[in-house]
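An instance noted here:
***
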Amino acid sequence: MKPVLVLILILVAFVPLKLKMEAACDRIMPGALSIDLREQIGQSAFIAVLGGFRSVMADLLFIDAYSAWERTDWTYLLLRLRQATELQPRAILFWEMAGWHMAWNAGTAAMEDDSKSPAARRRLQHDYLELGEDFLVRGIAYNPEKPQLYEALARLYRDKFHDHVRAAENFEKASRLPEHHSYDERFSAYELSYCEGREREAYDRLRTLYQRGELRTLYQRGEKERLPRLLNQLRVMEERLKIPANERIIP
């Protein structure tokens, strides 16, 4: 009896606070509770959302999406990810995982499906790649101040679409935001070095990164930029651009 009473007291204290917090979140970034959403998640779940348990329902849907991934039920997975992200558009993890599941997991499974022709596999993989891209782009629209989604989108363009221009752009956007990874600026320059007509711009940026390491002490961030790949890429760019020997960083 005592544990039940404690649970009731916790709920009484927690629910008003939770409602207040979710109302504040909705004022910052409102998410429309549409008829379409009610049809997708069911009437009981929709009533729970209206009752203030929006984040709880989103978490449950996201957990159910994980179960769909384990079953390799890609259609059901897509449905649950759409529902979860619509309910909680400020949850960075939901968008990032949705993009990863579609582009990497579902896309790879499509290419390994022996029941389809090679052409059908490629088409299906491309569809999943575009779904992954769409999740990340929409996530950024809701969370433009978060570098994680720009980084995820940049990796998608680099590794799956092989679009070095857009990969460079998104790594650069991430590098301008608070809490970005230290490699974002460097990765942007790497991707730019593969873009025809922008080799000189890429070289100048790589050279700046190297010099930043030269001018700072061993314990500062700049020194960490002197990585083997950076040195190798500088060497390649100096050869490609025919930089005079006396101006090269790498002898």
Remarks:
- The first helix runs from residue 2 to 28.
- Residues 55-247 form a domain with the Serine Threonine Protein Phosphatase 5, Tetratricopeptide repeat fold (CATH 1.25.40.10).
